[in-house]
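debug: dumping io for the single-chain case to check the tokenizer round-trip. Nothing else runs in this session.
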Amino acid sequence: MVVLSGRMMSRRLMGKASFAEIKDASGRMQIYINRDEICPEEDKNFYNEVFKKLLDIGDIIGVEGTVFKTKVGEISVSVKKLSLLSKSLRPLPVVKTDADGNIHDAFSDAELRYRQRYVDLIVNDDVKDTFIKRTKITNSIRQFFNERGYLEVETPILQPIPGGAAARPFVTHHNALNIPLYLRIANELYLKRLIVGGFDAVYEFAKDFRNEGMDKTHNPEFTVMELYVAYKDYRWMMGMTEQLLERVAVDSKGGTEVTVGDEKINFKAPYPRVPILEAIKIHTGFDVSEMDEIGLRGVCDKLNIPTDETMGIGKLIDEIFGEKCEHHYIQPTFITDYPKEMSPLTKTHRDNPRLTERFELMVNGKELANAYSELNDPIDQKERFQSQLALAEKGDDEAMFIDADFIRALEYGMPPTSGIGIGIDRLEKAVHSLKGKGRITETNIADTLKQVRRALIAADVNFKIAKQFTETVKEKAIGQKVLTSLQPGQLLIKIVRDELANLMGGSAADVNLDGSPAVILMSGLQGSGKTTFSGKLAKYLQDKKNRSVLLVGCDVYRPAALDQLEVLAQQIGASVYLERNNQDPVSIAKNAVAYAKKNQKNTVIIDTAGRLAVDEVLMKEIANIHKAVTPSETFFVVDAMTGQDAVNTAKAFHDLLNFDGVVLTKLDGDTRGGAAISIKSVVNKPIKFVGTGEKMDALDVFHPDRMADRILGMGDVVSLVEKAQEQYDEQQAKKVQKRIAKNQFGFDDFLQQIQQIKKMGNLKDLMGMIPGAGKMMKGVEIDDDAFKGVEAMIQSMTPKERRNPKIINASRKKRITQGSDGKKTAATIKQEITKEVLSLKKNGQKTPHLAAIIVGDNGASRTYVNAKVKACEAVGFDSTLVELPLEISQKQLLEKITELNTDKKIDGFIVQLPLPKHIDEQEVLMAVAPEKDVDGFHPVNVGKMALELPAFLPATPYGILELLERYDISTAGKEVVVIGRSHIVGRPMSILMSQKHSVGNATVTLLHSRSEHIQHFTKRADIVIVALGKPHFLTADMVKEGVVVVDVGITRVDDPSKKSGFKLLGDVDYETVSKKASHITPVPGGVGPMTIAMLLKNTLRARKTFL
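debug: decoded output
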């Protein structure tokens, strides 16, 4: 008798007996449950009700039983007693199998997998190996150091000065001390203080944080091991590093050779030593050893390496090595003797005063470790810190801070010391062996197909079908192996692909459109997507089959269903038939068919009601409709995410209606749809269509062979070509071809190409159709708005620039690259503010401080205020949120404003509007001190603005001015029309545009909702600024070619096709106006982000007391 416990990962119910699989930290075990064994008495409810109906995949159970072997030789436990230990309230993700037979969980979103690592660990056994491997590596390093008597220590994570590396820190605030603190970027300086204090060797496994970019090899939070040993130098450290890594490889992998991707890497000592300047000469042909900054910039230009004015000699050499040399060093190699400008904490080289005694260990084309002979001369150290300060003033936000206390420590004397930092995350990847498979044996085939079968079952394919499928594949694979010289892996993939296609129907089945009119009847449960599919099918038949379609609403129980069908019909330009006051769906259907005949509609699509489950009323109703209209095609619509219950539902519908085909909706990936495969096998009816997204054109004819290719990661080139052909305009293509031949291909042509690609559908689905790309993009989310930045830049060009790109010089490029997207410009402004804040902090000056008052709990107001608080944190400001109750009196609110007015810590503050009705907003705004009114609403600031005196400008108009200036848009002498007369945007905008400034000197016309003949003014305007709050008010026929358009309005409009239920529209019809405009701001993402950015800029100006 054995006792086991674990999480139930799969289950196969077979009447009185069932199999299940449980999993714990040590592995998996199959268990066999016989009803009469666990329920020996007459009461069988524990098996029939609890085990079969109440237990779910993911539940943690305990079992007692005896061990036996099944007929196929699998060790299993025959259960005598079963107990529920813990209930899983959330369903586990479904798993899938790739072409190699490896199981992967359905967590395709990489961010979600990392956020919910506990789920990832449950469904993906390989993830657990990462944790185990990492522990082996750190244990091996600790043991190596401890054997040598080195001391493990801990150093501060929160630091008053972020030192030890050239990196941009994360900034936080200590409320009790009211001082800024920084998350540790390196633990180097604290460890070296311990060497000063008398320890001979110290090490630490530390979490470091760097507020820089992110990619596959750089994470803002990472683990590093740093070691410092007294009376040693960097040459000794190279030998010690070779011993350490050889030991780690043996301890964690059993040998010194590992395979990473396609590369075999050997950690056996010794490793080559290559000076960095020699490496650059070898791989670029340039000798940079004697070059100054100007010479290095010239080399970078010749090598097409981008630079900027903040880069000094060290950064330029680092860029050259990183771009042109680093990737060549696959085997462990020490890159040594770095220039002094690159190594501010390193001892000067004993043979060359321009160099330092430093090395980086490169493995697989990436830096794995960084080590020095440590600088212990306090005078030299102080000079290098000061040179770093010069770089910071030049704009380098990664330059080191001056740590006066560390210099003081060195003045007490630090012995000659060598130090090294090893990235644990990179070391883990470097020793992780990814072994490929050799020739497949019968055993390997059986093992692989067992995983395939599990994946199919987990994807809700019926157990018998999955078993039959894998047995057929195994039989064919072993039988053909003798007859062919193909590689076994290729052969197995081909057989799996062919059998999978056969399992799903073999070939595509077309829709039957016989009849006059052809009647298509929808059936299925509530929530399966019948109404949306009805709209998609109508669009498909109109566009692809040239049919005249009538949509019919027969769901009389859900008024929203009729509304949805009406909206969908409007979107696709189809006719719709509704009888809102008729509660008899049968008569509605008959009337609709008669209406179609009378109005020359040759296709009728009937959307019927669904239920949460099959019931007698539903089945009788759908049967009566079927009998009344005699459809030429009846579809059973099923949600791709549904479980095996869908099979039973399908059988019930089929027995009653004998439907003609299955429609699979919500197929957002190839990991789902197992239930539909089972439906195909059980009812022997083809899958005819699949819905692949929210848009009305996200509908595909189901091709079993193509779907099999996509499931196996082999792409679907045929469907990709078909989608391209749908958007192909032969005449336009010939014109483009001629322009290419004459070297006249312009950005208008390029923009048109982008728009055609976008019309082809969801970008991730398109990538999945490219052979090999699906596997590469696994876990990668592709934003459907990915092209927007490129489109924005093209639309930032003048028509002349689009037609003739050769005229785009440096100043034009600067304007264009800022795009019309306010997000990018706002981000640039925030970066500029951040640099100024860091400069203030480095010089010991006070951090800018913004306060916000919010009264009550208005959701929109709170969202806006929270965005401002987050923006403050992002740029390094201090911020205070004053939350006051809804019932606060006006007197109490004014007292709080007076308190902020006199608080010297607060540089500026805002009062979030709207305020409760019992409070006078005008009096409140008047109470804000003008010198702290960073919203720019106080009459003093408004008056100063009108008189062209220094003042806080309202944030939105200020943002528009900034956009115009950064786009390099000329306004002097231009005709500007401002539509809207609010005190916040319209009126101040009209004043500012007429003033004598670099953005201004324009002839301004202010219009509003009561103005007549608006088109007369907008037609002649060079610049139109719209802040009216009316969606799509400004249309293409109201503006001239080359106009500049600034869209301030934003309105929420209901849209049932969106997950949110709404979409955001601006005051400008972007799609049509953008074709005529030289510049246009989008909504959202245009003016909106600029408002918060300029509020921050006002606060910074308040800090500098410019008034």
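debug: round-trip ok. The chain has six domains: 2-98+105-119, 135-272+331-431, 443-496, 518-702, 730-772+785-805, 822-1103.
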